[in-house]
Amino acid sequence: MTIEKKTAVSKQIVLNSTQGPDDVAGPRQRLSRRSVLKGMATTSVISCIGGLAPAIISPQARASSGELNILSWPDYIWPDMIRSFEAKTGIRVRLSTYGDNNDALGRLTAERGKGFDLIFPSVTSAGHYYSLDLLQPLAENRLALGNIAPTMLASSLELGATHGGKRYLLPFAWGTEAITLDSARHDDPDGELSYLDLWQPENPGPVTLRPSSALIALGLALDYNGELPSDRMADAYRSEEKYRQILDRATAFAINHKQNIRSYWHSTPEILSAFAQEGCAIGQTWDGPGLTLFRQSKGRYRYRMPREGGLAWLDPVGISAGAGNLEQAYAFINHLLTPEVGAMMANQSGYNSCVAGTEAYLLPDVREAYNATYTREALDNLWWWQVDPPYWLAVRQEYVKRFMQA
């Protein structure tokens, strides 16, 4: 994926994850666990004493008529989420999916913002949608904003959910990219894993990764080791020159340690195949597939945070500029903003919902995997993808090509 994915959470209110990916690196430092927990606690108290704010469904949307066209990541909108909405509203849902942010942007651009009513772009790619006028401002008074974890809602503003003083994107899901390993073949040292481990010749089995994000993770690791200080990769967002300096070193390292890499992935199915069919023992993956492997293998495959910090992303939902079914779009967003529906996504995808109160509806093994992965230290140490600067994608693709052709 070339426009990066796939924002902070509490262990009391789980926000679960899929895929996963444009500006300054300041906001991620402010997304501390303390601030998240403070915002979450407020919502938790409200839900205990009176329930979360009810979903807002307009009279027009309640009528048994209309349809809704959704463009989404493949593991965000599940059949039970659609069935419950259709039963409640009579609105027919048509779902189309995309494999990465470039695909999503291209399809909406081709339709000039029409053809689809709702889309789930990674917040890092928001600037591209704004510059092409592909989204419309959200009418916040028509949305059940009280159902979203308060700190998540506030942090989304810093990460790129607004444009020209108006909100265009609403938090939906968040997740991370870190390390999945086969514990039967690879040691699972608590707190000792590093992105550099993926590139070591002594690995007991082959490796899988996504080149575009692996180079960023290497830059983070080189900063952690003091070999290439970059203010924890904040410098990469400050200027193209510094970005290139970091990628020069990261790409050279990757080329020199390329021999163990067996497969390269760009989607969830490719991650699962790398471990199940291609025999990979360790890899840099999204958390959703990591959780799926954990559940399918009864704990043999484990998803872990490296010492440098997991790469964290936020995927919001927005209404396309040419949406033809506006009432239905608002109705479906409010459907998503209920804890039960948030948990449907979380339980089946392994990603985290931005809706407060989903923990009460999570399956036991999903909650177990989340708690094992997102410890206090891991949450404090997350590294957040920022909005892409204008030079970001083209430069990174240049270095990915250099690595792949080496």
From TrEMBL:
<dbReference type="InterPro" id="IPR006059">
    <property type="entry name" value="SBP"/>
</dbReference>
<dbReference type="InterPro" id="IPR006311">
    <property type="entry name" value="TAT_signal"/>
</dbReference>
<keyword id="KW-0732">Signal</keyword>
<dbReference type="Pfam" id="PF13416">
    <property type="entry name" value="SBP_bac_8"/>
</dbReference>
<protein>
    <submittedName>
        <fullName>Extracellular solute-binding protein</fullName>
    </submittedName>
</protein>
<keyword id="KW-0813">Transport</keyword>
<dbReference type="InterPro" id="IPR001188">
    <property type="entry name" value="Sperm_putr-bd"/>
</dbReference>
<keyword id="KW-0574">Periplasm</keyword>
